[in-house]
Specification:
Keywords: DNA damage, DNA recombination, DNA repair, DNA-binding. It holds the Pfam family Ku. Belongs to the prokaryotic Ku family. Among the domains are: about 130 residues, Ku70, Chain: A, Domain 2 (Beta Barrel); about 45 residues. Helix content is about 35%, strand content about 25%. The chain has six helices and nine strands. Helix 4 packs parallel to helix 6.
Length: about 300
């Protein structure tokens, strides 16, 4: 069983639920080291005193806040620990909100919350089921690894999921970050066609249908170079659709999407029909076999009776 990376209590009202925090996700990527080009010499980083040029042990390093003009406030690790909130290892829920009200931009990273005490699994299940029934998420704060986090606690199937979140002042204002954002679209026909395209391309959310193709390509690249073969790149970058081509591009896209949907629906219908035929054929075959078996038994009984009479 995986080890929890944090443990404490979910507190709401006067109820405390002992829980452990576990990683819910893992990234898959190809690891690379750094080398000097043309050699097999690894590049490594060292913690070096910029004045003396000497390497410094990690234990001798402290943090400093830059005040400007070459001035710093030096802070010891113990001082940061002493002012850290949540020393009681508490996930204190301050309020419950409707899940649909939370903008996904606030979500940061997902974790599983598991029951930490076998005697308190009932309280864990109670909170989980109540959240599921009300479609609510608990908003809480907690401290992990010397940092305070804002978090939501929600129910997903049999488990409670904790999502660390950004604070409001950590979300950048797009109006301040981006220039020349377009005004509301005024092209009624184009807007209608774009909406039609979205409808034609709509479907169910199936996470397993999406895979990391880039990582697969990186693996293929590494394997190709390992074998000493030449690497060939054929994919071209797309070009922006010009305003004059927009309507025709939308129309062609809608037709292609509808055609794919129709084709997919036909394939599903064909599969269902084939499955029904197969089932019907099996049922008919079983009935025929049963009838033959019954007829054979009946004939055998009649023959036996005749022999006895003789």
């Amino acid at each position: 069983m995986a080890r929890s990376i944090w443990s404490g209590y979910i507190n709401f009202g006067l109820v405390s639920v002992p829980v452990g925090l576990y990683s819910a996700t893992e990234e898959h990527e190809v690891d690379f080291h750094q080398f000097q080009r043309g050699t097999s010499d690894r590049i490594r980083y060292k913690r070096v005193n910029e004045r003396t040029g000497r390497e410094v042990d990690y234990e001798k390093i402290v943090k400093g806040h830059d005040l400007g003009d070459g001035k710093y406030v030096i802070v010891e690790p113990e001082e940061l620990d002493n002012i850290a909130p949540g020393k009681s290892r508490s996930l204190e829920i301050s309020t419950f909100v409707d899940l649909d009200e939370i903008d996904p931009i606030y979500y940061q990273k997902s974790y599983y919350l598991g029951p930490k005490d076998a005697d308190n699994k009932g309280s864990y299940a109670l909170l989980r089921d109540a959240l599921k029934k009300t479609n609510r998420a608990g908003i809480a704060k907690f401290v992990m690894r010397g940092k305070e986090y804002l978090a939501t606690i929600r129910a997903q199937d049999k488990v409670l999921v904790l999502e660390t979140m950004y604070f409001a002042d950590e979300i950048r204002n797009p109006a301040e970050e981006l220039d020349d954002l377009p005004a509301r679209s005024s092209a009624g026909k184009q807007l209608s066609m774009a909406a039609d395209l979205i409808e034609a391309m709509s479907g169910e959310w199936k996470p397993s249908a999406y895979t990391d193709t880039y990582t697969e390509r990186v693996k293929d690249l590494v394997e190709t170079k390992r074998k000493g073969k030449e690497v060939v790149f054929t994919e071209e970058e797309p070009e922006a659709t010009t305003p004059t081509d927009l309507v025709s591009a939308l129309r062609a896209s809608v037709e292609a999407a509808r055609s794919r949907r129709t084709s997919g629906a036909t394939k599903k219908t064909t599969k269902k029909t084939s499955a029904k035929k197969s089932t019907a054929e099996k049922t008919t075959a079983k009935k025929t076999t049963a009838k033959k078996s019954t007829a054979k038994k009946s004939t055998a009984k009649k023959t036996s009776s005749r022999k006895k009479a003789a």
